[in-house]
Amino acid sequence: METKKTTSMWEKLAYSIGDSGANFVWTFTSSFLTMYYTDSVLLAAGVVGTIMLITRLLDGVSDIAFGLILERTHTRIGKARPWFGLSIIPLVVSFLLVFNVPAGINAIGKTVYVIITYILMTVVIYTINNLSFHAMLSRISLTQDDRNRISTVRGIFAFVTGLVLAIATSMLLSAFGGEKEQHSWTTIAFIYATVCLVFQSLCFFGTKEKLPATYGESAKKEDIGKGIKALLHTKYFYLAVLIFIFSYLISGSMLGTAVYYARDVLGDSGTYIYIALVYVLFMVAGMLVTPKLILRFGKRKVMAWGGVLALVGAVGILSPYNLIVVLLSTAVSSFGQAPFSSIMFTLAPDIVDYLEKKTGERYEGLATSANSFGMKVGTGLGSAAIGWFLALGHYDGELSVQPQSALTAEIALLFVLPLVSNLVRTVCISQWRINEES
To answer: Are the C-beta atoms of 72 and 213 separated by less than 8 Å?
Structure first.
């Protein structure tokens, strides 16, 4: 019997719910962890930024290492799916550890605890969870159009989750005592960990790999070596990595900065909800029209023009203290970013198909490492940039009113950093001609 190449609506929903579950951990961490470390744990912003950078360097090693492990995995239930299922419980446990820094130890002890728990969650466990999840895409869906639809649905779910997180976290922080209190973060982390566990379990049981995987049979070393060589000799691997790095640098710094920006620059922490609301709503609106635009103009052109539109969003720097201008700038930038957020996860499956035509082999694990590596490096650099910029601006987590230098740093984070990042990834996607070459 011929294998069904496309996914049912339930499979699309189950896959997307899995990503939403991950976002209750990853988006919350990327948006709020720096504030937790600076305002509740009371670590210096520069120390936090440095920890983020070190972790990202280790991520590069772990992504490639797990990509190799994934290539050698063949079980009765698939190649990527078993690793995804096995990583769910460790992910939520490590997440709880990250947001439970002991209050009774000194600054050195806190720093050591932060390094160990953050590396455990991001470098080890989240690597397994995220890379295997995205490797599943090219195995549960065997056509490019269907993968584009899945990616769009996944993207919408992810950003709706981001909206829920923005609103819920602000409300929950206020309800449980504010960002200075450890109890607030512990309770919120427990709630989000539970949601992640439920959502990712639904994803695991609701999807099925359609490509056959022979039980007990491992990939040959020479095949893996050939795959690495083929991957490293195509420019599309490097383009995909850069696109992911700068896309997640934007998202990682945007909402993370907005938490500080609303309170310090705009003078009202409650305005964070409005910024996040506009960011997510216009992102989702852009995602809804992206599939139709792709059918008419193609993936590369739609993403490139989206990047140009996102560049226009940086105009908000001309009036950074005006909430209306900030919201309009956010709306334009977010709408332009939508094509990247919607379909950039299809870049790795494109590479898988491209290499299969070149070599006769499929390398889902290795190709998907571009996603995972770029995603975590970008998010980490975004978080690290927040720490470094705040340190340069002499931000002090114990002060209720920050100096002007800190406000200037926050303005640069919200507008200048995304401007540069948008420019780089727009140039990168303009070179994506993989379908024309294959």
So the answer is: no
